[in-house]
């Protein structure tokens, strides 16, 4: 295999303009492609001197949307270190426990907040370091350890090598037409797979510069389009929840800035109706994609002829196997190295069996129908909660909600509509029941519940297992 890491940095070194720009903290900072390697080699020297971390070592890294996080990520790739990524705000005791569990050399902090006991990375401190030149990083060297949300159980450490990121990025960019003429905005959380792959590594693999903004929030949603216009952004990623918030809070004339040409939507399902509404309003198709932390990106929709309601078409060399009732199995050349179990890598080999139910159309488009472990078995009939949520969305008025199953002595499981905030008034629940009765299939809503706040992951995706546990524990 060619040295993909060396080739990646060699391409960036030929770019004189900034390839990373940070606008997240109010002060604009950037690093040119021609200067990038020097910054990374100085950062590697700092990690060696301050944290004792060298090639082959694991490091617990606290990340936020900062230039320091991006540089730390790239320095680890270039110098063969492994980063176990954690979000800003993680308790120091939890960081120490993770460090001990995975036998990490150190805890480092690439955010603007202080972290007790961690080595802090600051751009302004790199100038005094003597650069350390990298050696060749062997193939299949662990690069990142990210952790699942725990929505289906205890969070698992997912280990990737740099090769999976770089080869997947090449396939994704080729299928979507992303080139060095594009300019990306990264508002995805950078401790999370979407933030490091979608927002940093995939764009840079195409030599496309990245503007790092603060992590997405209500405040950033309100100034979203002005930021896109000011920074001449041509491409970016959002989750469906983020896109919905952008639409609701948009006070502009609903005109997409002229440079903008690719809006990717991932990390969760987007309904065809929501995609069509955005397309009608802004004239730009939101391109749904599908990926897994273990396999990175599997598919993406076509900009020229979007197929709303699907998650697009498989990337080159990705092979899908699915049946009417069997979960989707995927063979991908971009698969992870394995899971981290008790501090040791448990290797993965062969196709990956997901928990998703799916089907492929005659045109080759992939439909993800929901998770097999979320299917509700009501009175012997399978009920897909995602299907019911799609039907209910028009009558819920934008209110956060979720459909889940709960144990029932008579039915086995009952179908429960859970809303955020105050409970539904009887008339509203009756209307929701009518919608489901009129919906094709044999489903119906049995009960309503409410919680103060729906449990969500870093991109706004509802964690169904956590919600079921809340209700079972009396958290309504």
Question: Could you describe the 3D structure shown?
Answer:
- There is one protein chain.
- This protein has 476 residues and is α/β, with parallel strands linked by helices.
- It has two domains: 4-370, 3-Layer(aba) Sandwich (Rossmann fold), CATH 3.40.50.12780; 375-472, ANL, C-terminal domain (GMP Synthetase, Chain A, domain 3).
- It has helices spanning 4-13, 33-51, 67-79, 92-102, 162-176, 193-205, 218-222, 224-230, 240-249, 272-282, 385-392, 426-438, 464-472; strands at 18-22, 29-32, 58-63, 82-87, 106-109, 119-120, 142-147, 157-161, 184-186, 210-212, 235-238, 262-265, 286-292, 296-300, 313-314, 319-321, 329-331, 338-341, 344-347, 352-353, 356-360, 366-371, 376-378, 381-383, 401-408, 412-420, 447-451.
- The strands form six sheets. It has a nine-stranded mixed beta sheet.
- Helix 2 crosses helix 3 (67-79) and helix 5 (162-176) crosses helix 6 (193-205).
Short description:
The chain has helices at residues 4-13, 33-51, 67-79, 92-102, 162-176, 193-205, 218-222, 224-230, 240-249, 272-282, 385-392, 426-438, 464-472, and strands at residues 18-22, 29-32, 58-63, 82-87, 106-109, 119-120, 142-147, 157-161, 184-186, 210-212, 235-238, 262-265, 286-292, 296-300, 313-314, 319-321, 329-331, 338-341, 344-347, 352-353, 356-360, 366-371, 376-378, 381-383, 401-408, 412-420, 447-451. With 476 residues, it is of the alpha/beta class.
């Amino acid at each position: 295999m060619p040295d993909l890491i060396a080739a990646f940095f060699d391409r960036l070194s030929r770019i004189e303009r900034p390839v990373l720009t940070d606008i997240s903290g109010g002060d604009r900072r950037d690093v040119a492609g021609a200067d990038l390697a020097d910054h990374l080699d100085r950062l590697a020297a700092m990690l060696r001197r301050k944290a004792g971390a060298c090639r082959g070592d694991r490091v617990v890294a606290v990340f936020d949307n900062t230039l320091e996080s991006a540089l730390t990520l790239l320095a680890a790739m270039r110098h063969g270190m492994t980063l176990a990524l954690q979000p800003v705000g993680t308790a120091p005791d939890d960081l120490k426990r993770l460090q001990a569990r995975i036998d990490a050399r150190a805890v480092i902090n690439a955010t603007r907040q202080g972290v007790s006991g961690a080595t802090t990375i600051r751009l302004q401190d790199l100038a005094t370091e003597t650069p350390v030149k990298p050696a060749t990083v062997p193939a299949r060297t662990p690069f990142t350890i990210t952790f699942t949300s725990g929505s289906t159980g205890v969070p698992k450490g997912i280990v990737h090598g740099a090769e999976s990121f770089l080869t997947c990025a090449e396939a994704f960019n080729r299928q979507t037409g992303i080139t060095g003429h594009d300019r990306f905005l990264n508002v995805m959380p950078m401790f999370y797979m979407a933030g490091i792959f979608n927002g940093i590594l995939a764009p840079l693999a195409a030599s496309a510069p990245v503007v790092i903004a603060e992590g997405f929030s209500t405040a950033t949603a309100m100034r979203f389009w002005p930021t896109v216009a000011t920074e001449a952004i041509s491409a970016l990623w959002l989750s469906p929840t983020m896109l919905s918030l952008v639409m609701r809070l948009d006070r502009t004339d609903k005109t997409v800035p002229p440079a903008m040409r690719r809006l990717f939507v991932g990390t969760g399902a987007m309904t065809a109706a929501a995609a069509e509404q955005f397309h009608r309003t802004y004239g730009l198709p939101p391109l749904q994609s599908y990926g897994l932390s273990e396999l990175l990106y599997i598919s993406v929709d076509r900009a020229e002829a979007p197929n709303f309601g699907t998650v697009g078409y498989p990337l080159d060399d990705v092979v899908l196997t699915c049946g009417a009732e069997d979960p989707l199995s995927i063979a991908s050349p971009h698969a992870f190295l394995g899971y981290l179990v008790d501090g040791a890598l448990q290797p993965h080999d062969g196709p990956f069996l997901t928990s998703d139910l799916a089907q492929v159309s005659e045109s080759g488009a992939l439909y993800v129908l929901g998770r097999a472990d979320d299917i509700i078995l009501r009175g012997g009939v399978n009920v897909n909660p995602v299907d019911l949520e799609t039907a209910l969305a028009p009558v819920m008025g934008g209110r956060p909600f979720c459909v889940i199953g709960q144990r029932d002595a008579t039915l086995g499981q009952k179908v429960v509509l859970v809303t955020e905030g105050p409970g539904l008034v009887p008339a509203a629940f009756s209307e929701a029941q009518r919608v489901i009765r009129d919906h094709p299939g044999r489903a119906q809503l049995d009960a309503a519940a409410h919680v103060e706040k729906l449990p969500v992951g870093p991109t706004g995706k509802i964690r169904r297992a956590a919600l079921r546990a809340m209700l079972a524990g009396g958290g309504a």
